[in-house]
Amino acid sequence: MTRKEQIHQVARGMFRERGYMATSMRDIAKAVGIEAASLYNHIKSKEEILWNTCESIADELIANLDEVKDRDLPADKKLTQAIVSHIEIVAQNLDAAAVAFHEYRFLDEKGGKRDPNGGHYKKFMAMRKYYRHNFQKIIQTGVEEGLFQPVDSKLFSLALFSAMNWIYNWYDPEGILTPKQLGQQFAFIMLEGVRKRSNK
Amino acid sequence: MTRKEQIHQVARGMFRERGYMATSMRDIAKAVGIEAASLYNHIKSKEEILWNTCESIADELIANLDEVKDRDLPADKKLTQAIVSHIEIVAQNLDAAAVAFHEYRFLDEKGGKRDPNGGHYKKFMAMRKYYRHNFQKIIQTGVEEGLFQPVDSKLFSLALFSAMNWIYNWYDPEGILTPKQLGQQFAFIMLEGVRKRSNK
DNA sequence: CCTACCGATCGGTAGG
DNA sequence: CCTACCGATCGGTAGG
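YS: structure for the whole thing
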């Protein structure tokens, strides 16, 4: 692992634990074992670490959903796959996911000298919108085809994202559930609900 | 509204929007229309505002659930009521809920001079644990009575909290859904799931 | 990768 | 409620 990668990894863990604003470059440097000024030989700015984190996980999620969404499957199967994939990615990148979903608001709003194309924040929001839209479309299709109940697809997808994106708050990689199993249980809960139906 | 209340209200909105760490006392003072030093005639510290926010919403949620949990109702009805109540409280205190659920980690860890009883953070965590425990027990009861499917009650309640506590990210008080309606739709989704069952 | 340092800003206090 | 100010800390740069 290069020093640069080490810095990113350490910073991600600290951003997750204490928050982006509450983590100083000196904190990161200390954890890495160098002086704060030396960090700048490997990275351009604190915000660069945040953006790298947010972008990489967003890229991965989007690439995965893009692949799932065009498969020739009924909506319930497709939704299950999308949920399982999403949760697998989150569970395998807990630090990055926690940071991206929690701290994205500290991304640069407007392009500065370092970011003339303007706004990591806006870029991230655009990616998020695209991803959510595709997820919601799967649900909408299921409703239209009569496979799903006539729920509000927007509301349902918001509830679904909420549940999925909170996982980093409690998922234990050392626990008994693998990411895939967790994803499957989650998909079951969201698809079937908790109430047992009578058989008639 | 007293100046003190005004400070708390303004600060809550800013903590929610920018985060606790990224909001300075000078920011708050400016929004209120006074100098930063003058804030300290009404409050003791920045952390006091955070603690007041976290405690008040936790108190309200706990009081409500304490009332619901002992009613003589089947688990599915009880769970629905608990969900609706929870969401009503969150939806009616969007700023406070967002701050409490997002920024609680900046509560004082150990008791300082101002807080000799030791640790708002710990107090908050204890309240959260108590609340979650009672919620989970409703689900567990439903499973044991055969009213619910044999889901993992811990996993289900975590998913449920995740979904409920993300609401402040998108609920629009000016929108068409009242808090009660939102709560009812949410309860439906979690209880029934999205998939339509065949009739045989 | 370090020493030395910059201007800016922080939460909070003294004293009126 | 204000002016004036404290020591601490911030992200980042210069120069080697």
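YS: worth flagging: Residues 24-26, 36-37, 39-40, 45-46 of chain A lie near DNA strand D (CB under 10 Å from a C1').
IM: good catch. Also The CA atoms of residues 105 and 121 of chain A lie 7 Å apart.
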